[in-house]
Write a structure and sequence with these properties.
The chain has four helices and 24 strands. The chain has 392 residues and is mainly beta. The strands form five sheets. It has a nine-stranded mixed sheet. A hairpin with a 3-residue loop joins strand 21 and strand 22. Helix 3 packs across helix 4. The two termini are 12 Å apart.
């Protein structure tokens, strides 16, 4: 697959060689639907996504392969459609979809209305959706974590041992500001800022996709959902939304922008997908514990993969394969990520383990995903451009 082409069919490798382009036409959601509506809408004709690489700025048009889109649903965050701080196999789904369906989902910022106003935001700019959810907090089943996640979404046919393929077809800011904050017990360097808490409002130019950090400091926007995960095994019970794990969750991987695909192992019937923690952009490491935290609207297609079996999440962009490792210890997370990269190359490219190990060493970047979520994340970026012919 040529990563330098202007037209890319993503998923043809992990989809086992399927190469049909845009067989289904995704739809837009009826703008008149009420918040929280889950009514299916007719299909439109758009079947491609513009991918912009967060690190290089390289832009490619992505044409999505089969399966065809069935229905597109709208799911907005309301007191009855969010999971506040948890992933749980016993969670009650708020939407049921078939494999191949799409959902247009909105996810709220992690910054509360009170903290936003305290940081200097005019109270009139606070989202009503956020106000409504915080006003109903006492009636919402609590965390142990703090993320407000939209879902759970039940995907028909998904069951333990399968893989849920999450295609990010569109991700856009829903508001024109973001926040960044750290406190005395958070972030990677709490000992360097004893007793200190700082919050900043970052104005977003959503037309030119720029964040205005300060006078003379502008940051390109690359929006992505920091937390996208399914329910962990039932034996784990209700897990905190902060540490990522085998269920994916709070990966905080800045590579997962529009035009990319996340592959999540399924651990319970229906998968029970949740989406949240909107980021307008982030640096690898997320060192102060927050990114440009904002609210996002995304269009996602969910596909149940009976032909894949994974123990850890993986991802794919038009230009790279991404292997991931997560552990409380950074060295162990790195070892796991490299082992997952080797396994990926063996499975996808038919390489020997020895050749795969050497190829990762000479061609791939081992990046720190985040250092602050309880478990730390490392990911390996394997460039597709090095493969000059189709895999087996």
């Amino acid at each position: 697959m040529n990563a330098r082409a202007t037209l890319v069919t993503i998923g043809t490798i992990f989809l086992g060689g399927v190469s049909a382009l845009g067989c289904g036409a995704p739809s837009s959601v009826n703008g008149g639907a009420p918040a929280g509506s889950v009514a299916p809408t007719p299909l439109s004709s758009s079947a491609s996504t513009m991918f912009v690489a967060p690190t290089t700025g390289q832009a490619l048009r992505v044409d999505w392969p089969a399966p065809a889109v069935g229905h597109t649903y709208s799911l907005m965050p309301t007191p009855s459609t969010v999971a506040w701080g948890w992933y749980d196999a016993a969670g009650k789904p708020v939407l049921t979809m078939n494999s191949g369906d799409e959902v247009v989902v909105r996810a709220l910022s992690t910054c509360s209305p009170t903290s936003l106003v305290r940081a200097g935001l005019d109270s009139s700019r606070v989202e009503q959706l956020a106000r409504d959810i915080y006003a109903a907090r006492s009636t919402i089943k609590p965390g142990p974590g703090g993320h407000i996640l939209t879902g759970p979404i039940y995907v028909e046919g998904a069951d333990s041992g399968d893989v849920l393929e999450v295609r990010f077809k569109s991700i856009k800011p829903a508001i024109d500001y973001a926040c960044n904050s750290f406190g005395p017990r958070s972030g990677f360097l709490p000992e360097d800022f004893p007793g200190e808490s700082h919050s900043k409002i970052i104005e977003l130019d959503t037309v030119n996709m720029i964040g205005h950090f300060a006078n003379g400091i502008n940051i390109p926007l690359h929006p992505f959902f920091g937390s996208v995960g399914d329910a962990p095994p039932a034996s784990m019970g209700r897990v905190n939304s902060a540490p990522p794990g085998i269920h994916a969750g709070n990966l905080d991987n800045k590579e997962l922008v529009a035009g990319t695909t996340l592959y999540i192992p399924v651990w319970t019937r229906g998968a029970l997908l949740e989406i949240g923690d909107g980021h307008a952009g982030q640096g690898n490491g997320e060192v102060d514990i927050t990114a440009m935290e904002t609210s996002l609207i995304g269009r996602l297609q969910l596909v149940v993969r009976k032909d894949m079996h994974l123990s850890w999440p993986r991802a794919e962009t038009p230009t790279h394969y991404i292997a991931m490792g997560i552990d409380k210890d950074l060295e162990q997370a790195t070892k796991l990520a490299v082992r997952q990269a080797i396994e990926l190359l063996v499975q996808v490219k038919g390489m020997s383990r020895e050749d795969a190990y050497q190829l990762v060493s000479v061609s791939s970047d081992v990046d720190v995903t985040q250092l602050v979520d309880g478990t730390v994340g490392v990911h390996v970026m394997i460039p597709k451009a090095i493969f000059t012919r189709q895999n087996r």
